[in-house]
Amino acid sequence: MVHFLQTLGLVLTTASVLTVASPLPQPASELNDAPTKVKRATCTFTAAAAAIASKKSCSQITLSNIAVPAGTTLDLTGLASGTEVIFSGTTTFGYEEWSGPLISVSGSGITVNGASGSKIDGGGARWWDGEGSNGGKTKPKFFYAHSLTGSSIIENLSVLNTPVQAFSIDGANGLTLSHITIDNSAGDTGGGHNTDAFDVGDSTDVTIANAIVQNQDDCLAVNSGTSITFTGGTCSGGHGLSIGSVGGRSDNTVSDVTISSSTIKNSMNGVRIKTVSGATGSVKGVTYEDITLSGITQYGIVIEQDYENGSPTGTPTTGVPITVLTLDGVTGTVSSSGTNIYILCGSGSCSDWKWSGVSVTGGKKSSSCKNVPSPASC
Ligand SMILES: *[C@@H]1O[C@H](CO)[C@@H](O)[C@H](O)[C@H]1NC(C)=O
Predict the structure, then answer these.
(1) Quick check: 100 and 141 in contact, CB under 8 A?
(2) What are 169-189's pLDDT values in tens digits?
(3) Please, where are the H alpha helices in the chain?
(4) pTM
(5) Ligand 1 atom, smallest distance to 116 CA
(6) Residues 6 or more apart in contact with residue 179 via CB below 8 angstroms
(7) Span of the secretion signal (predicted)?
(8) What residue ranges define each of the domains in the chain, with the CATH number in brackets?
């Protein structure tokens, strides 16, 4: 048996192209029983089904010009620890009305990399109808980065035209996403809606660095989580860099979030924190530093504790306090029809704020701010 497995390991190690659905003469579980005796293979796949069938037996998975069939997830969940996934060439998806996701990856110590010149093309225009996730066609989510742990990395991906939300980061603990480009600019006139770039929930130690995003909703939305960093980003066309809405979910705690050295242009909002009316939870230790705004159409900075069913009520509540908030170097311009700064806090539910170098100009000065803690001002 030992001799057989060594032979098998050698075969797998030297195989560079595996395109059949079941290349292994033995089930994967048997291989896992002898991890020290079998070296996992370097695999290249040209079909999604083959990649999914053999994913656990490969140490490196190259996805070469994969056309994922309609209604199918490119399911790379449960990868063996330390697996490297490489998107190469152009990845495309068949059309079907369904909720997705188009891609899902989980595991520990996973690296996902886009090879030079590669693209992942969501073909979103086929679903876009201006309604996003609020109605119309059922649209597949793009990428579930769920349960990625142990210093996992998603890097160098060039994403085009997601049907609706792009990256859902959930249950992650130790995940870095860097140099990810999401170009949904065709959706500006083509009916793209709710195309959030990065939605973070229930996660710890997540870093998103050097993202370039053109979309029609939040560039970042942190709904819950601890030790979340977004840095070096460029966001255009969307709704800005957001915390929330916080409250009314299973996890309603946001703590230690740093959003730094980023640019937000031609967007509805710049810096935004929303908490849910009547809910409980907390937003503590959020820092925005070195943020540059331009072409903001609604609010340069907006912090409000009155969200209900996705819309502001105008009446703030106190159940999700926003404490230890730092804005340091948030500067730039709002269009003349927009508002520079809007802060709507409940009585006593915003405290321990630090503001320095905050200068947002060009828009209107709000006259409806409430319970603004010093040294902030509208
Ligand atoms: C991402 O691209 C850079 C530049 O080409 C490269 O140095 C880096 O190793 C790539 N990341 C991964 C995970 O392969």
Answers:
(1) yes
(2) 999 999 999 999 999 999 999
(3) 2-14, 28-32, 48-54, 187-190
(4) 0.91
(5) 5
(6) 155, 156, 157, 209, 210, 211
(7) 1-21
(8) 40-217 (2.160.20.10), 222-378 (2.160.20.10)
Of all protein residues, whose CA lies closest to atom 1 belonging to ligand 1? Answer: 156
Burial of 214 (0-12, 13-18, 19+ CB in 10 A): buried
Token digits of residue 366: 């709000």
Amino acid present at 52: I
What's the CA gap between 46 and 236, in Å, rounded? 34
Query: What sign does the CA torsion over 54, 42, 77, 125 have?
Result: negative
Q: Which residue among 63, 88, 154, 155 is best mutated to probe the pocket of ligand 1, counting the most ligand atoms within 8 A of its Cβ?
A: 155
DSSP state of 255: E
**210 contacts 179 by C-beta, under 8 angstroms:** yes
Cβ–Cβ < 8 Å for 338, 309: no
pLDDT of residue 55: 97
Residue positions annotated with a catalytic role: 239
